[in-house]
Amino acid sequence: MSDGRPTSDRIMRLITGYWATGLVGTASTYALFTHIEDGARTAEQLADRAGISLRGTQALLDGLVSLELIELHAGEYRNTEEAAAFLVDHRATSLTGFAKVKMGHMGSVAALPDVVREGAPLTTSVVEVADNPHWEALVQALAAQSVAVAEVAADALKLADAGEVSILDIGGGSGIYSGTWLDLNPAARSTQLDWSPINDIARRLLAERGVGDRVDYIAGDLHTTELGEAAYDYVVYSNIAHQEGPEDNMALFAKVRKALKPGGTLVVSDYVVDDDRSGPQFALQFAAEMLLKSRHGSTWRRADYHGWLTKTGYEEITFQPTPSPTTLIFAR
User: Fold this and answer.
1) In angstroms, rounded to a whole number, what is the distance separating the alpha carbons of residues 80 and 71?
2) Quick one: average pLDDT of 142-154?
3) For residue 33, with 0-12 CB atoms within 10 Å meaning exposed, 13-18 middle and 19 or more buried, which class applies?
4) Does residue 31 sit in helix, strand or coil?
5) Engineering a disulfide at 79: which of 62, 84, 166, 216 sits with its beta carbon 3.0 to 4.6 angstroms away?
């Protein structure tokens, strides 16, 4: 506000928000945050280390300072604590892969006016098909987002002390839940249900992690694949519900209820909005992403999940926040 009147500053920052995506994605492409962490401190040093122009480096650094991702002190650049935690390559929590993926998605937003008018994505926008080459990059980029969430879930379930338990990860992607949980509990075994090309990615990553001998794979579609009866202690349904409509989510929850052993737990991990749809910010904005890229998906309310789970036979339902935009839902 200026003299009690609104200014255009915030509106301008929103309109040009794609600049931030481009800056973070490009800085990730050239590993600028990693080079800073490794000791390159000036624009000249960073340009040399990254193999890019000095002019381009300075433009990136100026933008990253404005985004409060790096700081400038006495002519030297340093990562903020936040950037050091989430934008340095090869760290388990690094989001640089995701930043590069999202930079490649910027053009798809231009279709949003048409998609909003129709209430459904353009055919070429839909990504949930097994043979989309986009999965190779995306499932690995998404893994970093789930590291802390999987750890929070394991702690809540006391998984490390649970002994010989069986886990089913539906749409497990990179296998991050299986990897995290099997690391914590050497007596546990996991099964991942996903499309064959994605299972191949998980198989490679979990073998590299040293837990591959305790993971089985089911190649199939979660909508049609039978899950068995009383077969699992824990079932994970992470970042899938937002791609599905109410009917498909309820159908899956009902199948999982049968597949769980007595006393077993369904763990849902997703972006959950408040019942009055007033927040949280990330979950509300993600609804537009689902309009662009799924046929029936959205970000669903707590009341939606509670209603679906109650109707499909679950009696104990709890919600738990995490140090990320994700909410965990435990249902027994």
Assistant:
1) 6
2) 93
3) buried
4) coil
5) 84
